[in-house]
Here is the input.
Amino acid sequence: MKEREKITPEMARLGAAIQDLRNSLPGLSTVKLAQHLGVTDQAVKKMQRGAGTGQFLRLATLCRLLGTTPNDLLGFSSAGDDERVRGVLESAFLELGVSDVEAVYFAETVLEVLRAPPIQSVDLPAREAGRVQGEIAFRKSGKVKPS
Here is the structure.
């Protein structure tokens, strides 16, 4: 019998962040996300509870130990990759059924958040800090938010 994975507070926060990000994208159900990831919707629900997220946290620990970042380790670090990543993000958002303008906006916002230093605040929940960081980054970019 398989031993049940203990969900740490860090795993629960990561799961909540995944769920919040998924919920922020119109039309991205657990079923659709599961299809894009090649897993079952039950696996996505488990991930959103924090179960099964330990490997992601281990990736962060591994990167700290190796003196690198997940982006560097996964090959998303060079300046020329921004256009490739932007294209991948825009395509993914278009597949989710958003308009061209929204896809560009969402992709640019994600890139700006990835470039920005993290917000450090004990008074602001992680999901709210991410939303605020995205808004700040996008405003600095000078782009116009789609209506």
